Amino acid sequence: SSFESTDKESLSAWLLQDKHRIEKALSLPEPRYNFGIEPITRLVKNLNRYSKCFNKDRVYYIAVGAIYAYIEFHEKNNTPINKEIIEIIQDVDLADSDNEVCREVGVINNCFISDRSTFFSDFVKNRYSCRNFKEQNIDEDIIKKVIKISSKTPSVCNRQHWKVHIFNDERKSKILELQNGNAG
């Protein structure tokens, strides 16, 4: 099964999926304590597979960050984690949670906006989708700048765990043939 995979891409996908499940639950107004035994079990097993087969990279550390955020949530609420989950979590090297990437995981509860009077109106007026494009190549430096700026735009739970692929010429045309709604 995919769960038992040792291929980097599959393991990365499982790590990101399960860390997202933990984050999503932590973002609820009143998360249940000791939630998520299934994704935590899978996440820990896949973290161990990943660290044995590959270098500890960004994907690895944000997944460890999810475990750390889970522990931190229970500690902040003076609630012990149940024994079964503790035994599972013990298989993670929590020394890895010292990596700064781990701190990118968790829930941000307060956002500061200095002028709230026009915020919503300005936000809504500036959100739209492009449907038609010119037949003109875009300079690669501009594309990189757009990617860098957009890497912190809002998304579900504000976790931007995507990859960007740039395709040109024939490869672009072949890929667009697979996409529905690409007539514009």
Please, could you describe this protein's structure?
With 184 residues, this protein is mainly α. It has seven helices and no strands. Helix 2 (37-53) packs antiparallel against helix 3 (58-76) and helix 2 (37-53) runs parallel beside helix 4. The two termini are 39 Å apart. Mean pLDDT is 80; it is low at 107-112.
Largest sheet: none
Question: Into which percent range does the helicity of residues fall?
Answer: 40-55%
- Class derived from helix and strand content: mainly alpha
User: How large is the share of residues in beta strands?
Assistant: under 5%
Q: What count of helical segments does DSSP give?
A: 7
Tell me briefly what this model is.
The chain has helices at 8-26, 37-53, 58-76, 83-89, 119-125, 140-150, 169-178.
